[in-house]
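haha ok so turns out i had the wrong file open the whole time. this is the CORRECT one, sorry everyone. sequence first:
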Amino acid sequence: MPEVWYAPKKPLSGRDYWVAVLRKQPSAILLAIQLLAILLLPWLEAQLWGRLVFVVISFFAVTIAAFVTRSTPSLTWLALLIGFPCVALEAWSVLSPDNVLVGAVGHFGLAAFYLYVAYGLVSYVFSDSWVTSDELFAVGAAFTVLLFAFAYLYLGVQFIWPDSFTGHVPGPRRSFLELLFFSAANLTSVGLSDVGAIRPHARAVTIIEQLTGVMYVAMVISRLVALTVAKARR
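then structure:
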């Protein structure tokens, strides 16, 4: 049985209030951090310090994500074991952008971490026979986590195979924001992007993301329909 959060009998304030909010709706916090990171990225990406700040935001996302997946059969220690070293490698790659090994390992590691967190969130949503408000936030959080996961996969691909993606600005590598935009276009099946995959490995990962986006929507809709039918039969 999932842990049920009960409202306290007396109002909380300060630190206790935010701890209670985090316990009640950790998925909402994770979703908010992801959306905030997307909005801040245009300003942060242009500067070295800004990219390091983005890494710090990712650090907090790692912490919140580990807290969220603790409510599922997923292992929290495994999430931390994958996440924290990869965040450190990501910071290293910001300071040493020409180090291909560090960059590739960091990007692929973060992609694996975000995919693991997405699995934990989906398991959380499918863990019981009713839908809570936090599980609804988890649906959105899982989608944004997948968005970041494939963006990091694309970063890793272009570190190993330069010129894997084309864009309006010539160059062997696309920025993280460009690849995040490309990831969003594929995952949502919108397809509106000035970035394109032109090498075989990049195209293969793109196909996987497009299929993932379609299957994710199908899974969520089928889950909600099944719960609605089950509730009507009671």
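The beta strands are 165-166, 196-197.
again sry for the mixup
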